Amino acid sequence: MPATKFVCLGLVLHVLIQGVASIDYGAALTKSILFYEGQRSGKLPSNQRLTWRGDSGVNDGSDVGIDLVGGYYDAGDNVKFGFPMAYTITMLAWSVSAFGKELGAKNELENALEAIKWGTDYIIKAHPQPNVLYAQVGDGDSDHRCWQRPEDMTTPRTTFKIDEEHPGADLAAETAAALAASAVAFRAYGPSDGNYTKQLLTHATQLFEFAKEHRGLYSDSIPEAKSFYGSSDEQDELLWAAIWLLRATHNATYYGSYIDAYEGTGWIRNIFSWDDKYVGVQLNILKLADANIIKDSSKFGDYKTALDEFVCNCIQKGNNNVKKTPGGLIWFKKWNNLQYTSSAAFVAMVYARHLTNHSIDIECADGTVKADELVAFAKSQVDYILGSNPKNMSYMVGFGSNYPTKIHHRGASIVSIKNDSTSVTCQGGYDSWYSKSENDPNVLEGAMVGGPDENDEYTNERSNYIQAEPATANNAPLVGLLAKIASLQS
């Protein structure tokens, strides 16, 4: 065979192995938002697209006389945890405010806004008084002892709250951030009627004041949440909330009296997640300085230095590089790693736009980094997630021809109530469905699972909750990433 044919064959094989030619980022974007319809709690709307789901949790809040119907189940269980839900909404709103034009170009802007509003409508109901926030519906321990689809659940729907006597500054502030970030998104891309935006900001400002005046970790006030979503700090959420309120209101008081008054910057972080928002704070400080909202930039340099080092470490050019799998995935933690990968890639993509707008570069320990290198890094991580990896496996359910088919998710793993209305009991679900070797009867389209281990290995088993469980926090930064990358593909 001529040498030129070997070269051509090698190129073709490279494309096929990497899967780049087959990745439809627009389709992945659509599915990434569709996933949220599978996580809905409450009375489902007439335009529900994942039709295998039914109404659930329709009496939530009745134990305390409050309407808490709605919101999202956090992952593969049937509990509504307020802390990750608020972070999810914040990140969805940031995806819209950062990449709203790209979402609109792919006809997904309205769907993204609906996903946000499903969460904010619930949050508004969960905040009936300035210093009261309902933080959780359902008990995690009892829920995890059962395997039931949401439509059948018989576990206690116990309601938990924070208030002046049982504070949770982290939760109150993250919820304020979610509402303020959503106000930014709706003001830019939502309906022309501004009443909803005003309502969001009213609740956001009250929650921020509640957080400032009543300090403490919410998971200390609500021990039932600690083993599931325990909080390690409150300062990052307070800064995060102040940043988003500043963006939403342009009221410099949030900067002068709180952000600038705080002596620290979070300094160099090793992760960006539902429990650690400092990287998001640092990036937004740069963006606010861009918009001339921040007049005093005395700490600007420290924020930028810390952010640059985080990004440099992610792209393998820093002083303390993030671990990377042999297949090229940045790997942070054993449990549900892809949530951290997607958030880091999102930061890189947003930061790339900042660098481009200002015609500047980043100086890393291992050399100068330009905006296009950050874009390439973010895209490489998305490509890996969507199938360009050693296992040629998409870690987004329903995307591609090879994806997780036995995920750790009650609703997906049990026959739809629309097909069989026979109630599934607490232990009956384990006996009849959890232990089955067959694929899930329902496809939770767009769900990004926890992903492979540090050696690019993944076990497609329902019991593999470390790798096989999706979560709302996983997808939120992915929505913005996919919108941007899909626009580059067009």
TrEMBL record:
Which keywords are on file for this protein?
Carbohydrate metabolism, Cellulose degradation, Glycosidase, Hydrolase, Polysaccharide degradation, Signal
Its Enzyme Commission number? 3.2.1.4
Q: Which residues form the active site?
A: H408
The record lists the catalysed reaction(s) as: Endohydrolysis of (1->4)-beta-D-glucosidic linkages in cellulose, lichenin and cereal beta-D-glucans
For biological process, the GO terms are: cellulose catabolic process
Gene3D superfamilies, per the entry? 1.50.10.10
Q: Which residues constitute the signal peptide according to the record?
A: 1-22
Tell me the GO molecular function terms.
Answer: cellulase activity
Which InterPro entries does the entry link to? 6-hairpin_glycosidase_sf, 6hp_glycosidase-like_sf, Glyco_hydro_9, Glyco_hydro_9_His_AS
Q: What class of enzyme is it?
A: hydrolase
Please list the residue ranges annotated as the Glycoside hydrolase family domain.
Answer: 25-482
Q: According to its UniProt record, which protein family does this protein belong to? A: Belongs to the glycosyl hydrolase 9 (cellulase E) family.
PANTHER family given in the database record: ENDO-1,4-BETA-GLUCANASE
Q: What is this protein called?
A: Endoglucanase
